[in-house]
Each structure stands twice: as structure tokens, then as C-alpha cells.
Amino acid sequence: MIEIKNIRAMLYSIEMSMQNHVVDRNEVINSLHPTNQKAGKNLIEYLTLRSADIRELQDLLHTLGLSSLASSESHIKSQLEAISQRLGKKYSLDQLDDCNFEWSLENKKVKSKNLLGEKENQVLPSIMVTFDKSFADDYSMIKNLLFNGMNLARINCAHDDETIWAAMIEKVKKACHKTGKTCKIYMDLGGPKIRIELIGKGSKKGKVGLKEGDLIYLSDGSEDVGHKAIIINPGIPEIISSLKKGERVYMDDGMLRGIIVNVKGQKATVRITRISSAKKIIKNGKGINFPDSELDIAPLTDYDISCLPFICENADIIGYSFARFPSDIKILQKLMSEISETPPNLVIKIETPEAVKYLPDLLLEGMKNESIGIMIARGDLAVEIGFERMSEIQDEILWICEAAHVPVIWATQVLESMNKSGLATRSEMTDAGHATQSECIMLNKGTHTIEVLETLKDISLRHSEHRSKKRYTFRPLSIAQEFIKNGEEA
Q: Does the residue 94 lie in any domain?
């Protein structure tokens, strides 16, 4: 038999814990932009709840036919109070939390609109399309993208230059004016790029073959390794001295895996332990990841800083790559405020284990400004945390951002095969359905972007009838209707 008084005691304990943690962080909450303080308080309350194991309580609540506190990220204390009321607790009106379901639903819409812009269909996520150099001369393509649902144009500042960026932006604005559509300009800072540069064997061709078990070397060229060795210069001097024996090294989006077997001066010896690509080669320009290493690398490069005046003048949103700590946010915000009185809104890209670990702190720092967003940059993030953890972590990011009322951009390889070849894989279709839980979906560049936009619209509309974020909604199921109909006719 379920003891109601025990459940009420559990709920009371959680409520008091929430209250205490909010008091402890009251100064932090008050430092947020006034429009974010209520959501900031809710974030603290949600994190309080999720710091404990409440699975037993959830089962008991479910048995009683009550909310199990799932799908309540955006208004967690209000939901807890509603459950307590059903179990007999009396609240006065001034005790009830005003971050309730109705208010949080409206606030999330406002935050999403402020950051990502207007949408013609409110049930669809915004769509961001990555531009490449060819878009600078392709006005008709940009206009076609607008007609098919593009809401944001993404310009990656790691590529091209200000002349090409300006041509892209000019054509987007022209297309918006002609079509009556709206489209925000999103510009990504390149950040510190750790890329393969062959300086020994294979340096002339830019690629070299290898096999599992081979030893290769990370070096800036100052150490004598031998002209027949495979030597990679990672491009950032302080990296090699930060490495330790036993740490993993991934290259080419995880296609190559190695283990550091020795570090001496500016030379790290790496044994290749896995090659997942059919072509067993290392190529110039491919990325390198060090998921186990503590790298003291600033997320802003000199090149990034040189791009800021153009970005502040022309962009609506700036994407911040490889930000890991709240101090990283402060540095960028300070630099932009010195350039412009109205700098672009900030989107923090989550692509390192540290960014995942410190996500609440990054959010609270960003929420000192009125508009803030998070991008789940799944390319580097998957390599850094491990592919097997990606599904779990992207959900956790969605939940925590939902608690903070902060819009999320779902990025990297959404319907990638379809964009490149015209045909999506089955797993990509499932992933695209999952992506509709975010406020915005980012597409990489490809030759079939229009077809991808049409497919995303179809998937989003179907999912919107069943689900709002991760809260399932019950529209009539044709399977159920047919079953009931057949039973009635029998």
C-alpha cells in the first residue's frame, strides 16, 4: 500500500532543497538580465531536482496517476507544487511559483523569436543553412532557400574572406526584400583549429598511408625524428607539451585512433590502434582531437578577433566555437561591447567535454544578456566525448536548456546523406525526428538542400502532432481509430 504521507515528505524535501539552492545562488540570479531571472531561478531548481535520484518517487507518483515530474523542465517547481496540492498540501496564492506551464510556454516562444527571428509556421523549428563560396554569386539559390523555409543563413568565418561574406549577406538581404521573407545572419567564429599538417613523410603529396600498429609523431619540427617518419604538426605550439602518456588521439572525425606512448620535449609518439576508413591514409587539413588531454588553448584566436568588427557590423548572431568556461564568455562579450553598442546575440557552441560539464555556468553567464542560444555541435562533440555517449548527452543538453528557457540549435550531419546524394538513410530520418525537439536545425552545405528542407518540413509537421519538445501529445492515432472502428462494426 502506498503511503501518501511518505510521498508528501519526499516532495517537501525536494521543495526545501530547491529553495535553499536558490537562496545560495540569489546573487547569481539577480545578475542575470531581468527577462532571464525567472528562468534562471527555474534552472537552479531543475538542477537541484536532477542532482538526486528520484526514480522511486516517480514510480509512486505514476502509480497514483499523477505527474512524475518528467517533461516539466521549464516549470519544475510549479509542477512539484501542483502535485503536492493534489496530495492535500495547501498553498496561499503568494506561495505558488509564477514560473508555471503557461508562462514558461510563452516565455520560451519570446526567447526563440528574439534570437532566431520570425517563423511562418510556429510548430516547425527554425532552419539554418550553411553557405559556401558559391552562394556569393547565386542569388536565385538563396531566394529558393527562403521560399522553402530557411530562416537563418550561416557563414563560417573559418572559410573565405570579408569580400565573399559581404556578397553573401548582400544577396540574402536582397532576397528578403524581394520575397518579403525574413532571414537572420549567423556568423561562426573559426576558433582554434587543430589540423593535420604533414611535415615529414607524405608532406609533398599532403597524404600518406599507414596501418594499425604504426608509430607516428606529433611535433612542431624542432625535434629530430627522422625524414622517413610520419610527422604531424598540430599547428598550436602549446598542445604537445600538454599531452601525457596513455591519452587518446583521434584524427579525421574519429576515423583514426591512437594512444600516446611517449612525450619528450616538443615530440609526442603516437601508436595507431584503429583505422575505421577503407582508405588507410592520413591527409592534410583533417581535424585532430585530444579527448583525454587538458589543453590550455584560448577559444579566441587572433584571426577571430580580427573578424569581430565585420561580424559586429553585419551579423545578427555570432557563434562561439570551443568556449569552455564562463570566463571565455566574458572575454568575447567585452571585446564586442568595445566595438559596438549593439553587438550580435551570442550562441555558445557545445563541442568539448568541459563545455558539457560547465553548461549550467555557461548558460548563467550568457543569460546576463537578454538573448542567448546554445548549439549542440555534434561533430567535434561526438569525437571528444565518445560516439556511444552522444545520444545521452544531446538529450541532457536539451533538458538543461529547456529549464533555462534558452533556444537550442541542433547541428551537424542532419540528413547529411540526403543533402549530398539525394537519399537519406533510415537512421538519419530518425535523427531528424529527434532534431525537431530543438528550436532550430542547422544543415551543412550540400547539393540537395531544397529536398532536405522539404523533408524536414514533412518530418516536423508529423512530429508536431505527437509531441511538443519531449512532452508527448495525443492526437488521434489512425491505427487506434481503425481498431476501434472494426470492433464496433463486428
A: yes
